Amino acid sequence: MTEQPTPLDLQPLNDLEEKLARGEQPDANPVDVILAFLNNEVYVVSTDVLEGPDSRVEPLVLANASGQPVLAVFSHPSRVAEQFLTAAPNVLGTQGSAIIGNLGDELGMVINPGAAFGFEIDPEGVANIRRDFKPADDAADTVDDSRDDTTDGAGPA
After folding, report:
1. Which residues contact 14 (CB under 8 A, 6 or more apart)?
2. How many CB atoms lie within 10 A of CB 115?
3. Residue ranges making up the domain that contains 104
4. Which residues form the SseB protein N-terminal domain (predicted)?
5. 141 located within any domain
6. Rounded CA gap, 145 and 107, in Å?
7. Is residue 37 part of a domain?
8. pLDDT below 70 — which residues of the chain?
9. pLDDT attached to residue 118
10. What letter would DSSP give residue 74?
C-alpha cells in the first residue's frame, strides 16, 4: 500500500524545499539544490538527546532499495514520518554542511525519505559534494593557510 502525499506535502516549507521542488524541473541547476542543502538547517532523528554542544548522537540510518545504508535527513521537522519517530523520537537540527562533513566514506544519505521533496545521494556523490563545495560562511570567512590546494590538481575550491 503506497501512501499518497497530502496537499501539505506538496507545499515547500522553506528555502531548501523550494530548491528541491525547482530541482525537478528540466532547466534546473543541481548546484542550487546542493548549495541550499549545505547552507540551510536540516534535521536528523536519533534515539539520543543532545546534552551539550560536544555531545554526540547516532542518527537514524536506513537501507535504500539496494540494501545500502543511507542517513535519513529531513528538510523540515514536519517531514519526519511517524514511523521514523517511533524508531528515533528526537528531531535534531544542524547545518547541511555539518552532515556532509561528518558522513563517512561508506554512507550515503536520503533527504526526506517518502516525502514529495527529496532525493538520495550515494557515498560517491557525498564525497564529490565534500570535495567540490564549501558552505557560504566557510568560503567567505575561513582561509586554511596550512594547506596548499594547488598541489592536488583540483585548483581553487
Report:
1. 40, 75, 76
2. 19
3. 12-50+57-133
4. 16-127
5. no
6. 30
7. yes
8. 1-9, 134-157
9. 87
10. B
Q: How many CB atoms lie within 10 A of CB 23?
A: 17
Cβ-in-10-Å burial (0-12, 13-18, 19+) of 9 comes to middle
Q: Residue 75: which of 106, 32, 26, 39 has the closest Cα?
A: 39
The pTM assigned to this predicted structure is: 0.78
32: CATH: 3.40.1350.90
Report the number of distinct structural domains present in the chain.
1
In a domain, residue 4? The reply is: no
What residues are paired with 41 via a beta bridge?
95
CA separation for the pair 20, 74 (Å, rounded) = 12
For residue 122, what pLDDT is reported? 96
Does some domain include residue 64? yes
First to last CA, the chain: 46
